[in-house]
Specification:
The structure holds two protein chains of two kinds. In chain A, the strands form nine sheets. Chain A has a four-stranded antiparallel β-sheet, with no helix packed on it. Helices cover 7% and strands 48% of the residues of chain A. Chain A is mainly beta. Chain B is of the alpha/beta class. Chain B has one domain: Rossmann fold (3-Layer(aba) Sandwich), CATH 3.40.50.300. The mean pLDDT of chain B is 94. The chains are: A mainly beta, B alpha/beta. At the A-B interface, loops of A face helix 1 of B. Chain A: Its main location: cytoplasm. Chain A: GO terms for molecular function: U4 snRNA binding; U6 snRNA binding. Chain A: This is Dynein assembly factor with WD repeat domains 1.
Chain lengths: 415, 182
């Protein structure tokens, strides 16, 4: 094995090793999820050297430099105030979901008008309107980090895969017998997973354009799914109150996470694939061991349904959004609630961290999106202007651009 | 309401929940009717660009009412909402005689939709508070409602503004839901 080069990954903090083994170029990462601006660099570099045989004495200086750059990034003060950049009004019916590509140069919006539109972030120009679905386009995704493909899942029971460049449809996947409401590419971008109101999830081979597995086991609608970082596991969240963990290679059910007393609203892995977080209509959020499927903790506190949950990129914190109009931040390690985000005047349907993890974005039925300090829970900014409920929101990777999708048929870009 | 709540209302509903689709031309008074049903303020209503959903309790039922915008350019999207419909309510502006033909045509097309086949239909002859409003009997005749034989139907005159006649219509809805659901 010979190390070829070292690459930086800002979010979550890490160093990517590019090396040659048996004539083949490979990569692996050193995750530095606990890195802080004040971490002792010398001690950390020593530890990395002990842990990683590819890191020899000759590259220690380089590693030290990279760690310092990551620390600088984490320590950067962000006083960025967002303001409205553009209102995009070419959808003629309410929007559903929105998503950025990895670099944030482009984003997509799904709509009740049966289209998905591709936009240039810098200009706000519409690049393509992806047309062909016969009903609401609900679930949308880029195959990040590549971003050359877009998947759309529709109430018409089909899923389509499109070329980002040309806007042409590569595949239409048929097989579900009810609305498709969630989907995701695997991290390698070889598979697409779709979840449906027909109670099944399916895995589709993107090259062959065919179904490779049907994940049968839930007794009610599947409304959330998520791959882990390595792509060998997928979880599905269902209205049957459970979350299922599946082996991607075989399509076999590995665990069923039983404990919630209401419909699941959201489910996600943390970055290192050790934990699963789930949100439910039973007003709680639960943490599970991703390997054994055992229940670790119940994060209670909300007085109404938990509508969305997420980890930050490093997996250190969890944010929950609730119909009670508040959001909460929990420490994933101690399971303690660190902050309550109070101020919205109606239910919060979406919550996400910025990639750096210091800031939280919430979207609400009160027609506003709000930005919060993830550590203190202080409201940093209220993004006002939408004329109706905000259904979806997203940060770009750099954390300096936000998009919001609303029932008022518009999408707004905030800089 | 949020996207997730919409998904919850999308699934085929348990016995005591009823999915009602509220359609009609633009300016027929669908949103006013919806707000009247939910006992909400009706003084500031603007054309619906998408849809509104409200749940109201009536006679032991939870009525999930979907009010869909009626402007011409978004009428082709009405079919987005047909799935699992228990009752169709079609609203007509009884004072807008110029558009009786247009509204009759839209209704006829709805009644031909496979996904709405057999679904009971209530026609509200709305805006009876206006002096120029045509009576329900005249509208029924103009729209050839008596030729509807594949489902139960009813025409009810009402004023969404004052609320008059609205409850009578909803009573018919509950009566016909109960026969269908049980």
């Amino acid at each position: 094995m010979a190390l070829r080069r070292l690459l930086l990954r800002y979010f979550p903090p890490g160093i990517i090793l590019e090396y040659v083994e048996g004539g083949e170029s490979k990569t692996r990462s050193i995750d530095l999820l606990d890195l802080r601006p004040d971490t002792d660099v010398t001690a950390l570099v020593e530890e990395i050297q002990k842990r990683e045989p590819l890191i020899t004495a000759s590259c220690l200086e380089h590693i030290t430099h990279l760690v310092q750059r990551l620390q600088e990034k984490l320590g950067e003060k962000q006083n960025h105030k967002f303001s409205l950049f553009k209102v995009l009004r070419t959808h003629i019916l309410p929007l559903t979901n929105v998503a950025f590509n990895k670099s944030g140069s482009r984003f997509i919006t799904g709509s009740y008008d049966r289209t998905c539109k591709l936009w240039d972030t810098a200009s706000g120009e519409e690049l393509h309107s992806l047309e062909g679905h016969r009903n609401v386009v609900y679930a949308i995704a880029f195959n990040n980090p590549y971003g050359d493909k877009i998947a759309t899942g529709s109430f018409d029971k089909t899923c389509k895969v499109w070329s980002t460049e040309t806007g042409k449809c590569y595949h239409t996947f048929r097989g579900h017998s009810a609305e498709i409401v969630c989907l995701s590419f695997n991290p390698q971008s070889t598979l697409l997973a779709t979840g449906s109101m027909d109670t099944t999830a399916k895995l589709w081979d993107l090259e062959k354009g065919e179904e490779v597995a049907s994940l049968n086991g839930h007794s009610a609608e599947i409304i959330a799914l998520s791959f882990n970082t390595t792509g060998d596991r997928i979880i599905t969240g269902s209205f049957d109150h459970t979350v299922a963990v599946w082996d991607v290679g075989t399509g076999r059910l590995l665990h069923t996470l039983i404990g919630h007393r209401g419909e699941i609203s959201s489910a996600q892995f943390n970055w290192d694939c050790s934990l699963i977080v789930t949100g439910s209509m039973d007003k709680t959020c639960m943490l599970w061991d991703a390997v054994t499927g055992t229940h670790i903790a119940t994060l209670a506190g909300h007085s109404k349904e938990v509508l969305d949950v997420c980890f930050d990129y490093a997996g250190q914190r969890i944010a929950t959004a609730s119909a009670d109009g508040s959001a909460r931040v929990y420490n994933a390690g101690t399971k303690q609630c660190i902050a309550k985000l109070e101020g919205h005047e109606d239910e919060i349907s979406k919550v996400c961290f910025n990639p750096k993890g210091n800031c939280i974005l919430t979207a609400s039925s009160d027609k506003t999106a709000r930005l919060w300090d993830a550590a203190t829970g202080h409201c940093l900014q209220v993004l006002e202007g939408h004329a109706d409920e905000i259904f979806s929101c997203a940060f770009n990777y750099r954390g300096d651009t936000i998009i919001t999708g609303s029932k008022d048929n518009s999408c707004r870009i905030w800089h | 309401m949020g996207l997730l709540s919409i998904l919850r209302k999308l699934k085929s509903t348990p016995d005591q929940e009823v999915r009602i689709l509220l359609l009609g031309l633009d300016n027929a008074g669908k949103t006013t009717l919806l707000k009247q049903l939910a006992s909400e303020d009706i003084s500031h209503i603007t054309p619906t660009q998408g849809f509104n959903i409200k749940s109201v309790q009536s006679q032991g039922f939870k009525l999930n009412v979907w009010d869909i915008g009626g402007q011409r350019k978004i009428r082709p999207y009405w079919r987005n909402y047909f799935e699992n419909t228990d009752i169709l309510i079609y609203v007509i502006d009884s004072a807008d005689r110029k558009r009786f033909e247009e509204t009759g045509q839209e209704l006829a097309e709805l009644l031909d939709e496979e996904k709405l086949s057999g679904v009971p239909v209530l026609i509200f002859a709305n805006k009876q508070d206006l002096l120029t409003a045509a009576p329900a009997s005249e509208i029924a005749e103009g729209l050839n409602l008596h030729t509807i034989r594949d489902r139960v139907w009813q025409i009810q005159s009402c004023s969404a503004l004052s609320g008059e006649g609205v409850q009578d219509g909803m009573n018919w809805v509950c009566k016909n839901v109960s026969t269908k659901k049980k």
